[in-house]
Design brief:
- The chain has four helices and three strands, in the order βααββαα.
- It is α+β, with helices and mostly antiparallel strands.
- It has one domain: Multidrug-efflux Transporter Regulator, Chain: A, Domain 2, CATH 1.10.1660.
- It has helices at residues 10-17, 21-30, 47-55, 64-69; strands spanning 7-9, 37-38, 43-46.
- Helix 1 (10-17) crosses helix 3.
- Strand 2 and strand 3 (43-46) form a beta hairpin.
- A three-stranded antiparallel sheet has the order 1-3-2.
């Protein structure tokens, strides 16, 4: 990759894309986002990776929408 992409702590990364830090943890658990530094309790995320995770297609469990509509 070329260019400079800042590393952000979780609260700033979440604010960048308008989600909660819990959503960042969920994306991390699902493999959509990986920390680029920091510590396990205070991860740092690349701004470009956070934006890509926001725009990535999200998977849902089978029949999740059907049950919610019923």
């Amino acid at each position: 990759m070329t260019g400079y992409f800042p590393s952000l702590p979780a609260p700033l990364a979440a604010a960048l894309v308008g989600v909660s830090t819990a959503t960042l943890r969920d994306w991390r658990r699902r493999g959509l986002l990986a920390p680029v530094g920091g510590t396990p309790r205070r991860p740092l995320y690349a701004a470009a990776d956070v934006l890509a995770a926001r725009d990535a297609p999200k998977t849902t469990r089978d029949n999740q929408r059907a049950r919610a509509a019923a």
